[in-house]
Amino acid sequence: MHVRIDGECHEGVAIKVTDVDGRELVRAIRGEEASPSVDCPAPGPVHGHVAILPPRAFDRRGALAATARALGHESATRAALEDARAELASLSMPAVDVRAARRRVAETGSEEERLRERVAELRGRLRARHETGADTTAVEAQLDEATRRLSEAETERIAAEQALDRAERAAREARDRRERRLELEDRIANREREVRYDLAAAVWEQFRSAVHAVPGSATVGPTPGEFDGDPATAALAVARLAPLEAPVVVDGLDRVSGADAAATLLDAPVIYTR
Amino acid sequence: MLLVVIYSRDARTTLRNVCRSHESTVVRQLGRAALFEETELGAFLALRLRAKHGGDVQIERTSPLNEFESVPESVREAATAYEDREAATTPYDKFATGTDHPQPDAMRDADL
User: Fold this and answer.
1) CA–centroid distance for A201 within its chain
2) Is A186's CB within 8 Å of B9's CB?
3) ipTM strictly over 0.90?
4) Which of A202, A246, A178 minimizes the C-alpha distance to A28?
5) What whole-number distance in Å separates Cα of residue A71 and Cα of residue A159?
6) Distance, CA of A134 to CA of A126 (rounded, Å)
7) Inter-chain residue contact B55 with A95, CB threshold 8 Å
8) Rg, C-alpha atoms of chain B
9) Under 8 Å CB-to-CB from A163, ≥6 apart: which residues?
10) Alpha carbon of A180: minimum distance to chain B alpha carbons (Å)
11) Fewer CB atoms inside 10 A, N or C side of chain A?
12) CA–CA separation, A161 vs A159, rounded Å?
């Protein structure tokens, strides 16, 4: 591993640097930043959990699962998980959009209502004109026009209702597919939990020993998940347990003194910074 | 009442949150479905879900069924008679054959 900072070059499996931000180093290890430059093997999945110690937050089960995978363990549930994922991926989702059809029914309905009132009003006016003997020609023409438009609006409303019925039926069928998707998503989440549990269980004993070997106070029970301690201790144990090729950044962790001690403790390349 | 049915994980989370914070408007929550009061607030909550989750939210307007008003007597009687049948294993279509009770196909095609 080579680390280059401000023209200064460091080499080895345990490198100590000063006045460098640990997060910057992690980004450099991931190849996301050119300076400082860290020339090292590409970080694997476990590295994501223990790239910097102490970690800000630590997903213990996730880290143990990644470690177990890196050590060659697999869960018996994996095939079922993959089947469910494959089925979900192959599930196409038909659109359920009845909004336009609903709006059209509402609009045609209110237009029809408006015209119905208009026709009633014109009929009343026509009757009044008949009674007083006034000229009815203009009102008759208006009434004819309104009646014609009312009949069109009725036709339009019926067509809109039929279209809405069809859209609702299609939406109901499409929801069966969504129902299936939801089932699969739930199943996948359950299987993922099982896989994580299985994997964590596969390395739990090794994790227990690692916790005892690293500095920090934590109690680990015999069954997976029984852990009472700080995240830094758990992360140190995982880093010690996991095969790591990319360097771990140890940033201001008082309980480890120096780069060499850290590299020995974790059995991994270390960049130690203060 | 307004029946809201959910078809995705995200929408289910939103429904749960809505139900938790609007207990007075939520008449019932049944897993992935809920009944809201038929008020403007009920409609607002339902539409909010639909605005957020689109086709993953189904909204239906429900009302209690008065069988004496909207279900034909023949159907009501058939249901009662079938529940009183002697052999629990008799399927309904066999039970109805040779009686005055309506056949499933006839009922299937008849809207209420």
Assistant:
1) 26
2) yes
3) no
4) A246
5) 66
6) 9
7) yes
8) 20
9) A101, A104
10) 9
11) C
12) 5
Give the sign of the dihedral formed by CA A183, CA A185, CA A188, CA A192: negative
Chain-chain contact of A96 with B32 (C-beta, under 8 angstroms): no
Interface size between A and B, measured as CB pairs under 8 A: 29
Q: Is A245 left (phi over 0), alpha (psi -120 to 50) or beta?
A: alpha
Contacts of A188 (CB under 8 A, 6+ apart): A81, A84, A85, A88
Provide mean pLDDT across the span B78-87: 92
Helix (H, G, I), strand (E, B) or coil at B10: helix
A189 to chain B, closest Cα gap in Å: 11
Type of residue found at A187: R
Summary count for chain A: helices (H), strands (E):
9, 9
Among B7, B8, B56, B111, pick the best mutation site for testing chain A contact (most A Cβ within 10 A): B7
Mean pLDDT of B3-24: 95
Report CA dihedral (A144, A148, A154, A155) to the nearest 10 degrees. Answer: 160
CB B80 within 8 A of CB B71: no
Q: How far is CA A232 from the centre of its chain?
A: 26
Pair of tokens at residue A56: 């800000």
Q: Do B7 and A182 touch (CB under 8 A)?
A: yes
